[in-house]
Amino acid sequence: MAEKEVWITGVGLLSSLGEGLDAHWQALGEKRVNADEKRLAPYVIHPIAPVSFDAQIPKKGDQRQMEMWQRIGTYAAGLALDSAGVKGNQEILSRMDMIIAAGGGERDLNVDLAIMNADAQGKLPPALLNEKLMNELRPTLFLAQLSNLLAGNIAIVHGVCGTSRTFMGEEASSIDAARIAVARIGAGQSDIALVGAAHNGDRGDLLMLYSFGDFALKDQYASVWARRNHPGFAIGSAGAFLVMESREHAEARGAKPYAKLTKVVADLAKRKEPGAVMKSLQAMWPQLGVNDNAMLITGATGAEPATGEEREFLGQHPGLAVRATGTTFGHTMEAQFPLGLALAALSISRGALYPANDPTGLEVEKTEAPTQIVVLGVGHWQGEGMALVEAVS
Amino acid sequence: MTAPRDKFGRPIVVVTGMGIVTSLGGGKTDNWKRLSAGESGIKTVTRFPLDSLKTTMAGAVDFVTVDPFSSTSLSQRLAEIAAEEALEQSGIGSKGDFPGPLFLAVAPIETEWPQRLEVAREVPTKDFGIIDYLATCSGGKFAHFHRRFTFGSVALNLAETFGTKGSPISLSTACASGATAIQLGVEAIRRGETDATLCIATDGSVNPEAMVRFSLLSALSTQNDPPQGASKPFSKNRDGFVMAEGAGALVLESYDAAVARGARILGVVAGCGELTDSFHRTRSAPDGKPAIGCVRKTLADAGMEPEQIDHINAHGTSTPENDKMEYLATSAVFGEHTKNIPVSSNKSMVGHTISAAGAVEAIFSLLTLEHQRIPPTINYEVPDPAIPFDVVGNKARDAKVTAVMSNSFGFGGQNASLILTREPA
User: Fold this and answer.
1) What's the topology of domain B13-109+150-421?
2) Which of A42, A109, A268 sits opposite B159 (nearest CB)?
3) For residues A293-306, average pLDDT
């Protein structure tokens, strides 16, 4: 049976650049970047742009039950549903499938630091850990932390209630979220799905994990391609959501596509072997069936050695017009891939690829209207994937 | 080729390997023996001090050790043990070369307290803040903590060990995670993407912070003495669930592929269903509508009528709300037939293995089909009159069982159900 065509009919974006597609298109056109070198100095981060959450999360009670990553995601999910014209459409929302890529939510850093300081000063006998946690943790903070509670909040606030699956595993989780959604729609297992992720980079607690591996960019912001001698990713903040549906489903309800999502492929390179990332990308590339005149939006993080291998791969396809989201948005981790998909769909719908923003010259200008954009995601530690976003003919 | 298909024309999905670890023991044989004998794996926790805790018991798996201890490492080890058993039984592929993808249900991962404190002791400044702390994190000395506590780490290691193909998926749908892992595997086989999938669900979360967090939500039983009496699903005096550890692994295959290689078929995953509850972050809709929808979707997916279900392996957490809602939802779907269905909750004995529960209970359901004996719900001394299920109380019951529904209803509105049968419909 022929696979069904999968359309992207809704795009929701909230990031360090602002909210909504027009604001993003304008900011990208102006090559605007909101990086912050001071807030968590020496770490460079991209905090979320100021936003009033009321527009998509009307109940203050709901907002209070969430931490920032969930507010970002629930907000962006609402924007995507609005843009697909299904917001409030009970009939569709009640059978809409949802696949979210998520990490964990904010911890209470004050409680954590008090415990860690007490322990470092020899004032934390093991029994006292329980007491401090019992007395000082806010009961509801657990719900802001649990990975599947972003999906839970989207169900509560927006009524997306068909199925709800949360994938975890940093960057790869969002590649797989898109891959599984496309496979299910293509095979007729799903008609319409909400796919996305949210990430809040303004978090000292989050930097811990990446500091262990020395992945975080320090001291000074630079474009992703200019970090060769000073590698690292600047943690970014974004909510990126897409409404995907079968062409038949979209046409039956008169929905207009931004683009179609033709293919998503994913891999788990054996990174203990040097060059494994490049080999993985070389193996995936022919599966997309595009030529070197295409355009490519990558989530290259700026962390090594992955970005170095990716740069080498891109060097083998010199005709590609490349854009790195990491330069503009920072590294948005689980949101890396849906952000790329969103920008690809946006570019196709606007009939142009946004300008390059790269002093090294790897990114080149391309004036013709895009018909094919490859979205590339390489995890900072594991997981690789590609998608092909195309204009609907 | 006219391949055997289900009534919707999809490849039939069968189980050819199962592996299990719970607080009752390691492996199917021990687990079944103790489960069908009505034994409890719940004990007073000895892994860490219990001072200030309201709940002091759990179904911890203490006979499996990892060093240094972390819940993440324990989760991985439990998953390995279960997967090894499942693969050996299935005989599929070869060692380290499983011919299909991995779907892994695992608890969300973060750096744990022993490791946080290990770093804290090395911070040179007194009364340090997060930036000082982060400076000590970096430099490579603690790089192994990054490898251990990335969300993808357990799946990465399992994928390497068992040689699964493609990008492994780690998922969390709270207490429904194990069922979701199976569902993703079933869907992949039905799409014809693969002939086999390895579905694993694991949970090693008995640590102080996890217990505190569930405790602060008033979700846990506080009937600590005796610990094996705490989990009492469907009883009037139930007061919460009991945290537990464990893992379940299933090798799923298309019927064709299993038959072609002469594999023994242990059972069929006839149907899966899922429906989200948007009522509340931790509570189910009191009218049970989402659970009703979930059960109906599952029956529809299997192409079965309610009358064809002859046993329900309940979610049965032993929380006041869940068990009541579960009866409400079940009776709404099954109507008059409800009283004919023996219902049991494995959680009365193994506790709530949270992320692993859906897979652990699917395996127990398949063992129930194999042995034609329904494991009991222990501690069923004071039946709740508001839950007039035919509870298989305290003693196992021999019965003709052809189709089991296994339910998982969890935090965040996650509802998933499976229907397992002996033979293809």
Assistant:
1) Peroxisomal Thiolase; Chain A, domain 1 (3.40.47)
2) A268
3) 96
